[in-house]
Design a protein that fits this description.
It contains nine helices and nine strands. It is of the alpha+beta class and about 280 residues long. The strands form two sheets. The protein has a five-stranded antiparallel beta sheet with strand order 2-1-5-4-3. Strands 7-8-6-9 form a four-stranded antiparallel beta sheet, sandwiched between helices. The longest helix has 19 residues.
């Protein structure tokens, strides 16, 4: 036999629960809430104040929310919103008490720490640990999406000159600093809409989500302006060889890498023939 709790005990439990509990009618008006719901969602305790669930959602979602509330057969759904710098999760459960109440019960929790951890994991999955740039895996995602949607684009391939020289003569810590500075130079040279990726080692790719020769040329110029000419018998600064190509220059999209890579190695050969001729490195013919 199930033991029946006195109503006053149930009232205390509902009020002191560690989760927010809110009842919302079919018009979206809040008809009852406990203390935690008040704290998390900012419901007002003033009788003349009209609390409405719609203030938890962006205006463009208002009609959708009301429609869901009025379809009591709708399955439970949830949303995560940001209020006052915190992430709040609302779980909506449709309720219908015949002739008495139609609406939803909202169970509310503060999930800020969880959402922050999710963001950390998401960022780690698409970024390079050393530089903080996007990684090769994320490049594949963005690149394939551009191809699937047949959108024009351009790429700039960049490679650090003299990284092996730096590692051999000044240690890998100095080499890592060179990679980090190269990443910063590239980030400072692109626009907000562009992507910068580290492919691994001393290789980088800039993805420009439009076929704009003027933009590509301007970015290349800014990258080159940051290059530091190497001096013998001293740690070298960042010097990048670059090659670029746009999707309109090739017949097959994937050929864009071949053309950009060829231009980049032409630039690199010139570097090792002149400014970097004292740096020992075997260059492909």
């Amino acid at each position: 036999m199930i033991k029946q709790f006195p109503t006053e005990i149930i009232d205390i439990i509902l009020e002191e629960a560690s989760v927010g509990i809110t009842l919302v009618d079919e018009k979206g008006n809040v008809t009852w809430f406990n203390n935690q719901a008040c704290l998390l969602l900012g419901w007002s305790n003033e009788e003349e104040s009209l609390n409405t669930v719609l203030k938890c959602h962006s205006q463009e979602l208002n009609n959708k929310v009301i429609d869901k509330i009025n379809h009591v057969n709708t399955r439970e759904w949830h949303s995560v919103i940001k209020l006052n710098g915190r992430f709040i999760e609302n779980v909506y459960t449709p309720i219908q008490v015949k002739d008495r109440f139609t609406g939803v019960m909202i169970i509310t929790k503060d999930v800020t720490e969880r959402e922050k951890m999710v963001e950390v994991i998401k960022k780690a999955s698409v970024t390079d640990n050393l530089t903080g740039l996007y990684n090769r895996r994320f490049f594949d995602t963005v690149f394939n999406e551009l191809i699937a949607n047949q959108k024009p684009f351009g790429i700039i391939m960049a490679d650090i000159n003299g990284l092996k020289y730096t590692n051999d003569n000044y240690g890998h810590e100095a080499g890592d600093k060179l990679i980090i500075q190269a990443a910063e130079n590239l980030t400072q040279s692109v626009r907000k809409a562009d992507y910068v990726f580290r492919f691994g080692g001393d290789e980088f790719v800039v993805l420009i989500c439009e076929d704009n020769p003027d933009a590509i040329t301007a970015i290349c110029s800014r990258i080159k302006e940051k290059n530091i000419l190497p001096k013998p018998n001293s740690p070298i600064g960042v010097n990048l060889s670059i090659g670029f190509c746009s999707s309109s220059e090739v017949n097959e999209v994937k050929e864009i890498f071949t053309y950009a890579d060829q231009k980049m190695y032409q630039d690199k050969r010139r570097f090792y023939q002149y400014e970097g001729k004292f740096i020992k490195r075997d260059m492909p013919e």
